[in-house]
Amino acid sequence: MRFKLTISKESKHTEPVNCVGWTTADEVYSIGDDHVINKSNLINTEVKKLTDLSSDVFPTDMHWFPKSIGGSKKVGVPDIFVIGAADGRFMIMSKNGKIEKSVEAHTGACICIRWSYDGTMIVTGGEDGQVKLWSKSGMLRSSLSQANGPIYSTAWSSDNDSVLFCSGKTLTIKPLSSNSKQNTWKAHDGIILKCDWNPVNNLIISGGEDCRYKLWDSYGRQLYSSYMHEYPITCLSWAPDGELFAVGSYNTLRLADKLGWSYSLEKPNIGSIFSMSWSSDSTQIACGCGSGQLAIGNLIERRLEWRHFEITLTDSSYKNECWLRVFSCNHSNTM
What we know:
Blueprint: E1 2-7, E2 17-24, E3 27-32, E4 36-41, E5 46-52, E6 59-64, E7 68-69, E8 72-73, E9 80-85, E10 89-94, E11 99-104, E12 110-115, E13 121-126, E14 130-135, E15 140-146, E16 153-156, E17 162-167, E18 170-175, E19 183-186, E20 192-197, E21 204-208, E22 213-216, E23 222-225, E24 235-238, E25 244-249, E26 252-257, E27 262-266, E28 273-278, E29 284-289, E30 294-300, E31 302-306, E32 309-313, H1 319-334
Antiparallel strand pairs: 1-30, 2-3, 3-4, 4-5, 6-9, 7-8, 9-10, 10-11, 12-13, 13-14, 14-15, 16-17, 17-18, 18-19, 20-21, 21-22, 22-23, 24-25, 25-26, 26-27, 28-29, 29-30, 31-32
């Protein structure tokens, strides 16, 4: 199993791409330090400029309102997303690029931002070391935690009752209830730049400046540690179904299974990968790159099994056709 990468020959952004997110299975939004929000159609490879942000807005993170969890789609969800900015604000925006609300959130940059899985809360992490909870309309609910250094990444537990965040060399799971104790442990020998918590398998991944990525359970017990890479781990992300995760570094994209073992390693000339987002069906990944390019990875050479049939998928475009042939063949055998 590996990624088949599609990378635009010409950079559509003139600065590094810090934010990416899927709207549908064939449409990706990207935001760069050039203040431009682009909309990319993966069917006809067309890229359109959606809007320009203000020249004083440098985006740090983006997250779409959750439409699914573990591959199960919700219905009737709003087409909105949130953006964190280097000036400490976060903005709630509609799909057409209109700013619905702007909120002063942190002293220094608002580095990371995430919706809860039920869409009722937003968590932000800032350069000021604070982790804050907000309502879905942008009203402050509480200051959840105060760390000694910047909060580079946050993630929610599957039941939305705890928040994972990284600061310095430590990972912390902080329950929303004031009566529950937080769990903090030293996870890396360098600053942790990214962490993620999967709602399906309840496992945690982290990566940072010590050039390693690691796998943990929800009690902070280490399950896997990679070898030391050549460059720091700048980004990583779980696939929604919890079977795979991706790891990004300088000119590097790695695919690994839920036990930490590597499936494939790609070496595209795209600079550091600063942001990642999986499609809801866990078959595609979008990567925002330091070169200003948007890289799309499709999972190929996957092994699909159904009853006594086994198929190796060599091209993502043939997925539905393959399953149709299997169904037809099996149906004829049972006649």
